[in-house]
C-alpha cells in the first residue's frame, strides 16, 4: 500500500504544487479584501480543487504501461482501488485545511464573514460533498472505459456531483423551511456529509468489481 | 524436471477482434530461458497477459511455481519480475522516485542493487524518465525488474528497440540471472538472433496457436532446410516434412533432422537453418 500511495502522490504532486501556489496567492488576496462571495469561492475552490486534481491524477497511470505493470506487482486489485480512495481523502483534507486557513484569517482580520457563524459548517459540507460525489461517480466510470476519455468523464462526474449537492440542499430547505435554526443547519450539514460519505463508501466495492473485470 | 511455469490448454477469445489464443501449452523448467517467438499479433502479449493475470483466460491452467495464481496471491508476484516493451513507468518519475515506489510494493526490494544497476547501465537517478532514450528506459525497466530478487523474469519484447551493443549487454545480464539454478526467463521477442544466443528452448506461436516448442540446440544443430525442385519434393516422405514453402524455382522444406535427411535423400541440398528462417517457414509455409 505504501508504494501505491507514493505512486499516487507523485501523480498528483506536480499539479498540486502549482494549484497550492495559486491558492496561496488567492488566499492572500481574499484575506485582504472584504468580500463574502470571494471568500465562499475561495473555500469551495480549495476544498474541491485539490481533491479533483487528485482524481484526475489517476489517469496518468495509464498513459504509460504503469497501470498494467502495477497489476504484476505484489498488490491486489482492491488495494490499487483503495489507494486511490485514500489518496482522494488525503487531498480533500489538504483542501479543507487551505479553505479553513483562508476562512480563519479572514474571520480574524475582518470578523465573521457569514451571516451566521454556523453557516461556515454548511459551506464545508457543500465542498466536501461535491468532492466526494465527484470521486464516487468518477472512479467506477474510469474503469468502465473512460481511461482514454477521463477528462470528459471527470467533467461529467463533477457536474453530476454539483447537481446532487444542489438537490440535497433543496431537500434540506424543503424539510426545514426558511430561517433555519442552528440545530437544523447542523442536521442539514450532517445529512449532506452522510450522503456524500455513503456514496463514496458505496463507490469503493463498485469500482473494485469493475476493475476486477478489466483486462490489460 | 520441475517447471517454474506451466501453461496447459490456455484459451482466450476476443470476439470483437476475432482473435483467439487456442489451447496454448508449454512449460519452462527451472534454470532455463524460454524464447517466445511469433510475428506481431501472433498472441505473445496475450499469452503473457494470461500468465500474469492482467488478462483473464477463458479456459486452461497457468501454474507459476506449481500453483495457479489469483489476484490474492501477492506472494507469487513477489517472485516475478516483468519488463514490457516501451514505457513501463510514468515519464514524470525519476529513477529515484521509481525506487521509492517499488520499495513500497516489493518486500524484497534491494535499493543498493537497484543503484548498482543504475550505475552499471549509466542511468542518472535524478533524471526524469521522459528525458531518457528508449534504450535507457528499457535498461531502467530491466534494473527495476531485477532489483526485487525475482525467480522468474517475464520479458515482453524487452530487447526490441535497443541497438546491438545494448542488446548484447542486456543478454549478458539475462544470462547472469539464470546462473542461479532456480531462476528462469520467459523472453518474448521477434528478434530471433537474441534467442539463438541465449534461449534454451524456443516456442513458436502463430495466429494464437502454438506451432512448436523445441530446444535451441535441436533447432540450431538438427533442424535443416532442404532445397529441392518440385519434382524432387514429390519424392519426399510426408512424415519428414515439418513445413514447406514454394520459392521461384525451388521448394524450401523444413525438416527436424538434417543429418537424417541428408542420408535419406541423396542429391538434395540440405542447409543449416536460422531461427528466423524456421519461423518464416512455420508461419508462411504450408504443412503436409
UniProtKB/TrEMBL annotation, chain A:
Provide this UniProt record's keywords sorted from A to Z.
Answer: Membrane, Transmembrane, Transmembrane helix
Q: Which InterPro entries match?
A: ABC2_memb-like (IPR025699)
Q: Where are the transmembrane segments?
A: 12-34, 40-63, 84-109, 121-144, 151-176, 182-204
Q: What is this protein called?
A: ABC-2 transporter permease
**Natural source organism:** Diplocloster agilis
Taxonomic classification, please?
Bacteria, Bacillati, Bacillota, Clostridia, Lachnospirales
UniProtKB/TrEMBL annotation, chain B:
UniProt keywords (A-Z) are: ATP-binding, Nucleotide-binding, Transport
Q: Give a yes or no for keyword Transport in this entry.
A: yes
Question: Which N-terminal residues, if any, form the signal peptide?
Answer: none
One Pfam family per UniProt: ABC_tran
Top-rank taxon, per record: Bacteria
Q: List, in alphabetical order, the Gene Ontology terms for molecular function in this entry.
A: ATP binding; ATP hydrolysis activity
Looking up PANTHER family in the UniProt record yields: ABC TRANSPORTER ATP-BINDING COMPONENT, ABC TRANSPORTER ATP-BINDING PROTEIN ALBC-RELATED
Protein name in the entry: ABC transporter ATP-binding protein
Amino acid at each position: 500500500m505504501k508504494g501505491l500511495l507514493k505512486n499516487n502522490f507523485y501523480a498528483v504532486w506536480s499539479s498540486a504544487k502549482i494549484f497550492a501556489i495559486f491558492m496561496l496567492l488567492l488566499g492572500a488576496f481574499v484575506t485582504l479584501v472584504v468580500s463574502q462571495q470571494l471568500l465562499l469561492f475561495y473555500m469551495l475552490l480549495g476544498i474541491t480543487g485539490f481533491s479533483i486534481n487528485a482524481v484526475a491524477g489517476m489517469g496518468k497511470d495509464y498513459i504509460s504501461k504503469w497501470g498494467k505493470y502495477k497489476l504484476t506487482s505484489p498488490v491486489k486489485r482492491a488495494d490499487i482501488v483503495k489507494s486511490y480512495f485514500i489518496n482522494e481523502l488525503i487531498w480533500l483534507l489538504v483542501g479543507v485545511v487551505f479553505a479553513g486557513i483562508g476562512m480563519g484569517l479572514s474571520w480574524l482580520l475582518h470578523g465573521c464573514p457569514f451571516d451566521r457563524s454556523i453557516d461556515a459548517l454548511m459551506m464545508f459540507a457543500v465542498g466536501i460533498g461535491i468532492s466526494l460525489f465527484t470521486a464516487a461517480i468518477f472512479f467506477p466510470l474510469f474503469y468502465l472505459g473512460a481511461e482514454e476519455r477521463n477528462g470528459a468523464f471527470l467533467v461529467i462526474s463533477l457536474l453530476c456531483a454539483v447537481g446532487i449537492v444542489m438537490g440535497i440542499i433543496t431537500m434540506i430547505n424543503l424539510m426545514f423551511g426558511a430561517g433555519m435554526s442552528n440545530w437544523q443547519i447542523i442536521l442539514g450539514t450532517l445529512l449532506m456529509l452522510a450522503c456524500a460519505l455513503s456514496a463514496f463508501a458505496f463507490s469503493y466495492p463498485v469500482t473494485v468489481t469493475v476493475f476486477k473485470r478489466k483486462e490489460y | 524436471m520441475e517447471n517454474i511455469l506451466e501453461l496447459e490448454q490456455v484459451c482466450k477469445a476476443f470476439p470483437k477482434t476475432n482473435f483467439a489464443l487456442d489451447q496454448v501449452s508449454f512449460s519452462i523448467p527451472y534454470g532455463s530461458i524460454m524464447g517466445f517467438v511469433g510475428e506481431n499479433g501472433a498472441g505473445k502479449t496475450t499469452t503473457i497477459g494470461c500468465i500474469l493475470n492482467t488478462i483473464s483466460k477463458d479456459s486452461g491452467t497457468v501454474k507459476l511455481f506449481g500453483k495457479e495464481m489469483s489476484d490474492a496471491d501477492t506472494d507469487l508476484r513477489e517472485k516475478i519480475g516483468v519488463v514490457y516493451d516501451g514505457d513501463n513507468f510514468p515519464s514524470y518519475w525519476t529513477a529515484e522516485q521509481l525506487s521509492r515506489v517499488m520499495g513500497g510494493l516489493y518486500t524484497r526490494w534491494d535499493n543498493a542493487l537497484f543503484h548498482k544497476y543504475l550505475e552499471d547501465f549509466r542511468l542518472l537517478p535524478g533524471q526524469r524518465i521522459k528525458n531518457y532514450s528508449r534504450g535507457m528506459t528499457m535498461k531502467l525497466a530491466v534494473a527495476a525488474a531485477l532489483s526485487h530478487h525475482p525467480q522468474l523474469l517475464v520479458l515482453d519484447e524487452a530487447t526490441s528497440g535497443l541497438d546491438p551493443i545494448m542488446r548484447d549487454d542486456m543478454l549478458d545480464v539475462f544470462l547472469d540471472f539464470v546462473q542461479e539454478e532456480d531462476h528462469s526467463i520467459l523472453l518474448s521477442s521477434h528478434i530471433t538472433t537474441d534467442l539463438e544466443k541465449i534461449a534454451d528452448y524456443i516456442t513458436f506461436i502463430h495466429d494464437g496457436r502454438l506451432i512448436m516448442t523445441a530446444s535451441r540446440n535441436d533447432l540450431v544443430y538438427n533442424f535443416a532446410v532442404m532445397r529441392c525442385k518440385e519434382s524432387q519434393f514429390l519424392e519426399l516422405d510426408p512424415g519428414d516434412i515439418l513445413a514447406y514453402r514454394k520459392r521461384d524455382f525451388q521448394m524450401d522444406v523444413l525438416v527436424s533432422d538434417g543429418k537424417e535427411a541428408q542420408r535419406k535423400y541423396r542429391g538434395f541440398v540440405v542447409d543449416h537453418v536460422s531461427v528466423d528462417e524456421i519461423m518464416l517457414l512455420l508461419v508462411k509455409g504450408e504443412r503436409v
